[in-house]
Amino acid sequence: MLFYDFEVFKYDWMMVSMDTESKKYAVCINNPKALKNFYELHKNNIWVGYNSRSYDQYILKAILLDLDPFKLNQHIILSHEPAWKFSRNFSKYPLYNFDVMTDITKSLKQLEGFMGNNIKETSVAFDIDRPLTDDEIVETIKYCKSDVENTMEVFMHRVEEFNSQMSLLKAFNLNIKYISMTKPQLSAIILGCRRKKHEDEFEIDIPKNLKITKYAYVVDWYKNRINRDYKKFLKTDIAGVPHIFAWGGLHGSKNKYHGEGLFINCDVASLYPSLMIEYGYVSRNVSNPDKYKEIRDTRLILKKAKNPMQLPYKLVLNSTYGAMKDKNNNLYDPLMANNVCVAGQLFLLDLIEKIEDYCELIQSNTDGLFLKVKRHKDVDKIKAIAAEWEQRTRLNLEWETFFKIYQKDVNNYIVIHEDGSSKPKGAYVKKLNKMDYDLPIINIALVNYFKDDISVEETIKNHNNLLEFQKIVKITGKYKALNYNGADIQERCIRVFASRSVNDGPVKKISGTDKLEKISNVPERCFIFNEDIKDKRISRKLDKQWYIEVAKKRLEDFGISDQISFKI
């Protein structure tokens, strides 16, 4: 396995790679012949990079083809064109490439920041209009090595992504050449898809076993052709809760809600795969529709046996729906995707209509409901009604109880079970990992309050690791630069902290019209620290009160406003 990274300038290019077996670096600078020899020596290795699926592998192949890598670089970055369009000959140099980038909105520099690593930028400008000096090449190689090392660290934090990719290849006897593909692309291959042209995107099929009377107007909304537009949606109250019905899933909730008592969570098990199997909503591009059901049945057998090989089967099942909406995937069949989505919403509405007299609806979200009941016998009544619904719809429900919930909205909540365990969802309360470690102290403070009644002041006061207080700021290509204390700065990704110093000002972003714009969740007074902070303690300069106020504001978003306030 090789980890690699390319840097490309107008007159220079370089590649740095790390061989995981020899644990040695290889560096190639402006030497196509040496790169060709290196490729021949390692072409059977797995090459791992960050954004290498879209960039680095094509820079490599361009050089192997004696093409100008800078022109390809411009084609990708400035023209925003897919790299594969640059040349028909890229296939002459096959590469077993694995890309560790799972979120195209996050740069490697941003992840380096989340991990607490040094995120200082190189001083060598990538748009420099002359050959690099020797010193600039040395600095760029150092920068490139850092990217390789950080790619390796990201890989270790996401090793399950690699393992799942390999398990897919193994489970379905696929050639290693497919390692470079995304999971939806692999699903299309596994299901034997052939692209077909479909012009019936909104000719949806309403299931005939649907039984809705009180809320029949929702069904009529979908039947009305004037609403068959992705921009259209229906706002309505269902069981006393505001809901939105549209073309992307059911959403309804009591916002800013918190309560204690007997709560039930009922989820439809594997809703979308079940609808695709039971109602024939699998993409019409699949050569053998029964193959999808076979994969589901095999997965259930393996899951019952607690065999880890159930994972690749699950990956195919879960990635197929999204791929049916992707114009670039051979599974693309928007009608079947719309059928799945609409049927899922209406079946859940069907269930709500049948049980609403025996509970209080707290939220509906795509494939499940949160309900509050007064008595245990009401739980039995709801489950008896649901059993008829399950038999009629051929869908299965999974049940869970909890005794406390704090809910900002349908996508941000935390439920707490009798044993003290909790299940958080959403940016405000989720457990952050090393790949999204942004303002972690706020999440920690909120969860401590919800679970253990610890004030946000106490939590923030007792944490002294600087990493917990970081805010990573990154601007996209639509902005010219960042501005700090009234001066433009070179970096496009920085780490900021709330500051007590009156000499420190805000960080803002400069728009294409030179307008200074605010950045969300960034203090008006802050200091920048882009060096490694993994083991660094806070200093007196850090303004903990700012974090307390942010945490309290987020509690208010949950409907909590009775927090004790005191200055630190």
Indicate the topology.
Blueprint: E1 2-8, E2 13-19, E3 24-29, H1 32-42, E4 46-49, H2 56-64, H3 69-77, E5 96-99, H4 108-114, H5 134-157, H6 159-171, H7 183-190, H8 216-223, E6 234-238, E7 241-245, E8 251-253, E9 257-268, H9 271-278, H10 290-304, H11 310-323, H12 334-355, E10 360-365, E11 368-373, H13 376-393, E12 397-409, E13 412-416, E14 422-425, H14 440-452, H15 456-461, E15 471-474, E16 481-484, E17 487-489, E18 493-498, E19 507-510, E20 516-517, E21 526-528, H16 544-557
Parallel strand pairs: 1-4, 4-5
Antiparallel strand pairs: 1-2, 2-3, 6-7, 7-8, 8-10, 9-11, 9-12, 10-11, 12-13, 13-14, 15-18, 16-17, 16-19, 18-21, 19-20
Quick synopsis:
By secondary structure, the chain is an alpha+beta fold.
Descriptors:
single chain, globular, alpha+beta, 35% helix, 21 strands, nine-stranded antiparallel sheet, 568 residues, five-stranded mixed sheet, disordered C terminus
Helix content: 25-40%
Low-confidence stretches: 564-568
Strand content: 15-25%
Evaluate the radius of gyration: 27 Å
Q: Which class do the helix and strand fractions yield?
A: alpha+beta
DSSP summary, beta strand count: 21
- Widest beta sheet: strand line-up: 6-7-8-10-11-9-12-13-14
Q: What's the N-to-C terminus distance?
A: 51 Å
Tell me about the largest β-sheet: 9 strands, antiparallel
Helical stretch tally? 16
The shape is globular
pLDDT averaged over residues: 95
Question: How would you describe this structure to a colleague?
Answer:
With 568 residues, the protein is α+β, with helices and mostly antiparallel strands. The chain is 35% helix and 20% strand. The protein is built from 16 helices and 21 strands. Strands 6-7-8-10-11-9-12-13-14 form a nine-stranded antiparallel β-sheet. Strands 3-2-1-4-5 form a five-stranded mixed β-sheet, sandwiched between helices. Strand 13 and strand 14 form a beta hairpin. The C terminus is likely disordered.
